[in-house]
Amino acid sequence: MSEIVLIHGSCHGAWCWRDVAPVLEALGHDVRAIDLPSHGEDPTPLEAVTLAGYAEAVLAAIRGRAVVVGHSMAGFPISLAAEMAPEKIARLVYLCAYLPWDGYSLVEMRKAAPRHPILKALRRSEDGTCFSFDPAHAREVLYHDCSDDAVAFALAHLRPQPITPQDTKIALGDRFAGVAKSYIRCRQDSAIPAEFQDEMSAGLAPGDVYDLPGSHSPFLADPAGLAKLIDRIARG
């Protein structure tokens, strides 16, 4: 089976995969979910976080050659990891994630979307170094189809998101281009509009684009269904 590395999105951590990883393991995969720098239990100070540091953390988690799944903002670090060491990555899987355009930052791509529903939930720190999700809007934007228990679990674990890695332009070339890619679109996503996910995934072969019916957080809303889809992709 496959080595699968799971990378979380903004403000989240390895904890968000708690219900997905066991299903993938039961299907025979070697699975690891990591905390990116300053997320989850990682002690890196917010001011020390960079996009390159994120990518290096992804590569450090890979033992052999892995299928790397990136959720939301993690599309940027997994892409940079592929540019840095394509030989370590069997396939990139973008889960309602930013599939980067060369020369753009994530902030610039977010602004390029036709709608910006996530903005109502973002609260920037006074010093401008990070942002957090407002609990009053987090469910609406991130977890609208998740159980009350799952939402409470998530809200208790969210941490501030450093802005620097998201405001850093990415440089991608032939090394990244040569890595196999799949995209999982979430059709009722209230964070990254479904039509923008369509645009970002348009360059992939139709057989490499998949749909899930729910929100931005299928790892909490339908972990078994998501795990089975990742398994299907990993098996090729």
Automatic annotation (TrEMBL):
<keyword id="KW-0378">Hydrolase</keyword>
<dbReference type="Pfam" id="PF12697">
    <property type="entry name" value="Abhydrolase_6"/>
</dbReference>
<dbReference type="InterPro" id="IPR045889">
    <property type="entry name" value="MES/HNL"/>
</dbReference>
<dbReference type="InterPro" id="IPR000073">
    <property type="entry name" value="AB_hydrolase_1"/>
</dbReference>
<dbReference type="InterPro" id="IPR029058">
    <property type="entry name" value="AB_hydrolase_fold"/>
</dbReference>
<feature type="domain" description="AB hydrolase-1">
    <location>
        <begin position="4"/>
        <end position="228"/>
    </location>
</feature>
<dbReference type="GO" id="GO:0016787">
    <property type="term" value="F:hydrolase activity"/>
</dbReference>
<protein>
    <submittedName>
        <fullName>Alpha/beta fold hydrolase</fullName>
    </submittedName>
</protein>
